[in-house]
Protein 1
Amino acid sequence: MPVQKSRKTPSKRGMQRAHAFLAAPAVSVDATSGETHARHRISPDGFYRGKKVIETRSKSDSE
């Protein structure tokens, strides 16, 4: 197995950690329903790019 030649200095370690943070996920707003959803994903209401692409159960049906 590979073994590092020398320790990473605190400065280099800090530089690496500065870029290792998690970015906020990209969120879109659907034009038709106004629902927020992840980019390139279907909204919880079943809309994608303003069109209804999947039938979803209403909240009254699931209870």
Protein 2
Amino acid sequence: MNIDVLDLEEALEELGEYSFRQGKMMEMRFFVGLGLDEISTALGVYVPTVERDWTVARARLGHRRGRGLR
């Protein structure tokens, strides 16, 4: 799978404008490699909150991917 890093950065910026927490969570997951439990601790929220945000953020990025994120 080829990913254009600039497109990914732009997509994460857009996600962060929609939801700061979702943007930070995706950065921690993609660039730092943290797991959902670690992200939960870092953001000070419960794991189910991270799981919901993860689902929504993936859907938003997937939708954007259909618009050009490759």
Protein 3
Amino acid sequence: MNEKVDKERYQASIARLEEIFRGISDTTNQVSTWRCPYKNAQDRCTAGFRCRNQSKFDIKDNLSLCTGSDNLDYRAAWEV
């Protein structure tokens, strides 16, 4: 297997991947302004610690229901 790499095609592929990851990153940054980073798509808490927003009554697959508000900016919890 001694094929030459098409540099233009390679660069276009890298640029496309960068565009895809930039979109993912932008969405993550936007969502992080109002959604707890430990809350999964099923509104279950994935944190490895206790949180006051974890329901003690609604537990499924060892994950508590997150009862936290999505109207909060959680970024201050990890920004310095």
